[in-house]
């Protein structure tokens, strides 16, 4: 009786129908997703082209986007490796195959190339890691396509493989060796034969299952086959045939006609194993895409937590930080579901995250949004950063919830001054804390360079306009280069703003040339200062232009600290790169002599600023002591600007934590300054609705508000702060009550984190907790994250989770269409408790001018002391009905807010008599930084 023909075409068609359904299901889970296969070909061999066309057709039929990447015959090994590296790193590519043989005029190591394909995308199954897994019976990787197809064909016959004797003829890496391993793990007893096998025909006759892939036409005759055996022919060989128009026909390694008379099942050539190879390639590609989807939609990261070695009492912050070895940042990147081409590593402990991750995850729903603020602090700070980090360590390391901490990058001013670093403290820190507090990835330096380039361009332009007549000035601004004269794109934008609709420099009239060339900056109305990221009091007022080369054109100006630059605020508030560019171009640096604004774009510097800031657009990924993720980005001055980390960092974090995760970020100082600006400026600009506010308080600060003695950095605490004093504490609780009230005015639940210090008594802590709950807090929690890390913030984490599950009814404090004065009053009355606002005549005049220019539609960014709810830093507690005096006002057009000045707020801090500089040193033997916190 003739054998049954096992049609690979029919089985492959059935498999493809099933894969098409799987792709459809995937796209329901992730709209817009299409599995993508990259087929890399070197040269243009026609036999390879035939196979590639088969693969492309099958992919199209299933719904896979297959890209045929053709590389020329002169492609070198290194060029091919670079291309494969790009495909490995791309999250858009799910599967990669390299079409063999490589048709290059240069020598290329095939094994090196197949191993260069990432094992996670190696849908051909030829990477050594995947081959090794298969050899060990681990089929979780990708199995080579032809062997997988052979096993599928055998199974489709209905013949059980288990217990059968299988003979494999051929030991190639592509077919023979892997099929023998697969059959072994299907519980067959396997014999491998090859060209050196003695009595080959006798061995093949013992096979219940015979797989042939030796590359010799019709080598296996019917007499070599055991009656009733299953025969799988993997060969495909051209032999002469005068009856064919091509002069040849294709045959297998088995004499097909003879095998039909002996075997029970036989695969034809062509139409047997070949279509199955393609079907298995498609199956592997769909599997790769499914794994991508599973990773994308998995509710919880596969994050490995770092164990803390808690000591009591805790040693210094830096000793704790150095006692923990951080995870390699590449491991954390992988745990978070990021891809290599979405990050740039800075050593082994930090990495920049590209904003293009937002495009890939545009359809991903974000998590819950939490802000951490404080009560009115002492000069020592009350531990907002420590609270933030303890909270996310508790959420992720102990409660198994995805969470991110988003933090500002600290300025070097406080680091070398008095306050110290901003990496948290105790067992709730960012590591490595030295990197965090010193330079990090250079973003502040980039802001410094960009800010000072703009200042240099402005002063140079003033000088050149003062020393040149109209004609030469215009000619130098639009010179002939190789005989051609044209406007640059940024100059065309200026022409458009001026209403000059011409693109040929030679067609402008003399009046238009003058209008274009002269900015006519009023040197008494310059708003742009140079910056440096240090505390340097002697730069608060300087005179520039004293060199004889400047021809006596001197002027008084000053330096600000770098984090006070408007560029820093722009980076923090931009939603994407285009938004940042638009904001940079609109920054007003001065007024001209007619009172019109002069912008960065007018000075032609926008593009150059973008180039200097290119890497600073990207947030920096770090980790906590317990190995949970932290995003560090931007650090706008909290007094002058809005004091929050960036919108783009929060947006990236929201996508990465997914729908059930949490993003906690910090707002500078108390609820009256940082939290109000976070809600009314940052949330408005980023179009985000927060779910919970955590307000940090300490017994120490509340005692100060109750009338306790001054708290000063570097000096011992007064006895009232280290002994129980319920009366003093009770008097100061009003400050906490005001901050709870402030949070509730935005209709978000307020959770009070009582940051426990070593000298606090249980009675004092309980008094604070009871007061908070009676005065409207959603929850009040006593926290010990400084001494215990995430384990000391478990109750806080649970309170935050519960608060975020309540319906969010967030609203802003004021609408933007209110007048500038009405918005100021709303903030002063509602957030501070003021009863009256006073303005100087100069401020009122500026408000009128800002209103005329449309700046009244901006939100308000109050510049006020953080040490009091009032404008007087010496007044503590929660006073009401006081007068708030606005003694100056300016506008940051690029950042998009109006800044009223309450009292004297310096944008350049100074060093104290004994700064931290005295304690900081570098150990020249070990390379360790000493004396840093």
* Tally of separate helices: 32
Secondary-structure-based class equals alpha/beta
Shape: globular
Low-confidence segments:
none
Mean of residue pLDDT values: 94
Number of strands: 37
Question: Major beta sheet, specifics?
Answer: 12 strands, mixed
Radius of gyration: 35 Å
Helicity level, as a percent range? 25-40%
How far apart, in Å, are the first and last alpha carbons?
Answer: 88 Å
Strand content bin: 15-25%
Which helices and strands occur, and which strands form pairs?
Elements: E1 4-5, H1 8-29, E2 36-42, H2 46-62, E3 65-71, H3 77-89, E4 95-98, H4 110-116, H5 128-135, H6 145-156, E5 165-169, H7 176-185, E6 189-193, H8 200-204, E7 209-212, E8 230-233, E9 237-240, E10 248-251, H9 256-262, E11 265-266, H10 273-297, H11 317-323, H12 329-335, E12 343-346, E13 350-353, H13 357-360, E14 368-374, H14 384-398, E15 403-407, H15 412-416, E16 424-425, E17 428-431, H16 433-437, H17 443-467, H18 470-477, E18 480-481, E19 484-485, H19 489-497, H20 510-517, E20 521-526, E21 530-532, E22 542-544, E23 555-557, E24 559-561, H21 566-573, H22 577-585, E25 588-592, E26 597-599, H23 606-612, E27 620-624, E28 629-632, H24 647-657, E29 662-670, H25 671-686, E30 692-697, H26 699-705, H27 726-744, E31 750-755, H28 762-774, E32 779-783, H29 785-788, H30 794-804, H31 820-832, E33 836-839, H32 841-852, E34 883-892, E35 897-902, E36 921-922, E37 929-930
Parallel strand pairs: 1-11, 2-3, 2-4, 5-6, 5-7, 7-8, 8-11, 14-29, 14-30, 15-28, 15-29, 21-24, 30-31, 31-32, 33-34
Antiparallel strand pairs: 9-10, 12-13, 13-27, 16-17, 17-27, 18-19, 20-25, 22-23, 25-26, 27-28, 34-35, 36-37
Helix pairs in contact: 1-10, 2-10, 6-7, 6-10, 14-30, 17-23, 18-20, 25-27, 26-27, 27-28
């Amino acid at each position: 009786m003739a054998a049954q023909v096992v049609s690979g075409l029919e089985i492959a068609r059935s498999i493809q129908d099933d894969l098409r359904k799987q792709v459809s299901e995937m796209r329901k889970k992730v709209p817009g997703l299409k599995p993508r296969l990259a087929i890399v070909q070197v040269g243009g061999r026609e036999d390879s082209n035939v196979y590639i066309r088969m693969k492309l057709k099958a992919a199209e039929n299933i719904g896979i986007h297959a890209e045929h990447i053709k590389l020329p015959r002169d492609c070198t090994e290194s060029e091919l490796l670079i291309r494969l590296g790009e495909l490995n790193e791309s999250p858009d590519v799910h599967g990669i195959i390299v079409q063999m043989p490589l048709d290059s005029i240069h020598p290329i190591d095939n094994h090196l190339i197949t191993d260069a394909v990432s094992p996670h995308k190696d849908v051909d199954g030829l990477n050594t890691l995947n081959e090794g897994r298969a050899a060990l019976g681990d089929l979780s990787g990708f199995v080579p396509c032809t062997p997988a197809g052979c096993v599928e064909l055998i199974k489709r016959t209905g013949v059980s493989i288990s217990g059968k004797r299988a003979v494999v003829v051929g030991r190639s890496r592509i077919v023979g060796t892997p099929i023998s391993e697969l059959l072994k793990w299907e519980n067959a007893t396997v014999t491998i034969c090859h060209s050196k096998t003695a009595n080959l025909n006798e061995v093949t006759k013992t096979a219940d299952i015979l797989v042939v892939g030796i590359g010799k036409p019709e080598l296996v005759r019917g007499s070599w086959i055991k009656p009733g055996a299953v025969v799988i022919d993997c060969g495909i060989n051209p032999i002469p045939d005068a009856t064919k128009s091509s002069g040849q026909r294709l045959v297998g390694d088995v004499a097909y006609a003879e095998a039909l008379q002996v075997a029970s099942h036989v695969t034809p050539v062509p139409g047997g194993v070949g279509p199955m190879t393609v079907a298995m390639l498609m199956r592997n590609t769909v599997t790769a895409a499914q794994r991508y989807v599973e990773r994308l939609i998995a509710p919880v990261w596969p994050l490995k937590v770092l164990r803390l070695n808690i000591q009591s009492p805790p040693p210094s912050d830096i000793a704790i930080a150095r006692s923990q070895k951080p995870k390699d940042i590449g491991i954390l990147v992988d745990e978070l579901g990021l891809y290599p081409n979405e990050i740039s590593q800075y050593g082994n402990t930090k990495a920049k995250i590209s904003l293009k991750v937002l495009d890939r995850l545009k359809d991903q729903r974000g998590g819950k949004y939490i802000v951490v603020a404080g009560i009115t602090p002492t000069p020592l700070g009350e531990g907002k950063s420590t609270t933030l980090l303890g909270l996310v360590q508790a959420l992720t390391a102990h409660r198994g919830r995805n969470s991110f901490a988003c933090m500002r990058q600290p300025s070097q001013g406080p680091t070398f001054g008095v306050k110290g670093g901003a990496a948290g403290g105790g067992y709730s820190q960012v590591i490595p804390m030295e990197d965090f507090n010193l330079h990090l990835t250079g973003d502040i330096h980039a802001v410094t360079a960009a800010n000072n380039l703009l200042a240099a361009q402005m002063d140079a332009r003033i000088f050149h306009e003062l020393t040149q007549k109209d004609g030469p000035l215009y000619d130098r601004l639009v010179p002939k280069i190789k005989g051609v004269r044209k406007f640059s794109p940024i100059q065309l934008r200026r022409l458009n703003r001026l209403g000059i609709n011409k693109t040929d420099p030679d067609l402008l009239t003399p009046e238009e040339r003058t209008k274009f060339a002269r900015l006519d900056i009023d040197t008494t109305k310059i708003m742009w200062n140079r910056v440096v990221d240090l505390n340097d009091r002697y730069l608060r007022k300087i005179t520039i232009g004293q060199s004889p080369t400047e021809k006596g054109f001197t002027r008084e100006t000053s330096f600000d600290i770098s984090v006070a630059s408007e560029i820093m605020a722009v980076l923090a508030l931009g939603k994407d790169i285009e938004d940042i560019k638009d904001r940079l171009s609109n920054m007003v640096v001065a007024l001209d002599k007619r009172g019109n604004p002069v912008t960065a774009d007018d000075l032609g510097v926008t593009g150059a600023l973008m180039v200097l800031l290119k890497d600073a657009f990207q947030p920096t990924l770090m980790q906590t002591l317990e190995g949970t993720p932290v995003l560090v980005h931007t650090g706008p001055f909290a007094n002058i600007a809005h004091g929050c980390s960036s919108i783009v960092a929060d947006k990236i974090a929201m996508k990465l934590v997914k729908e059930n995760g949490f993003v906690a970020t910090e707002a500078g100082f108390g609820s009256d300054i940082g939290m109000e600006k976070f809600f009314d400026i940052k949330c408005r600009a980023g179009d985000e609705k927060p779910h919970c506010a955590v307000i940090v308080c300490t017994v120490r600060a509340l005692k100060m508000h109750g009338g306790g003695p001054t708290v000063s950095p570097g000096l011992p605490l007064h006895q009232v702060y280290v002994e129980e004093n319920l009366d003093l504490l009770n008097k100061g609780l009003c400050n906490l009550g005001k901050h709870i009230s402030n949070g509730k005015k935005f209709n978000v639940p307020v959770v009070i984190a009582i940051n426990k210090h070593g000298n606090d008594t249980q009675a004092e802590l309980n008094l604070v907790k009871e007061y908070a709950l009676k005065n409207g807090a959603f929850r009040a929690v006593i926290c010990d994250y400084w001494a215990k890390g995430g384990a000391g913030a478990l109750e806080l984490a649970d309170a935050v989770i519960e608060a975020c599950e309540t319906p969010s009814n967030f609203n802003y404090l004021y609408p933007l269409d209110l007048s500038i004065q009405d918005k100021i009053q709303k903030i002063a009355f509602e957030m501070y408790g003021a009863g009256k606002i006073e303005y100087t005549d100069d401020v009122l005049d500026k408000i009128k001018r800002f209103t005329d220019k449309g700046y009244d539609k901006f939100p308000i960014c109050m510049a006020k002391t953080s040490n009091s709810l009032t404008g007087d830093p010496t007044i503590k507690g929660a006073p009401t009905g006081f007068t708030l005096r606005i003694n100056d006002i300016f506008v940051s057009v690029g950042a998009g807010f109006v800044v009223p000045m309450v009292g004297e707020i310096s944008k350049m801090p100074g060093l104290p008599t004994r700064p931290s500089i005295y304690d900081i040193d570098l150990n020249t033997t070990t390379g360790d930084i000493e004396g840093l916190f």
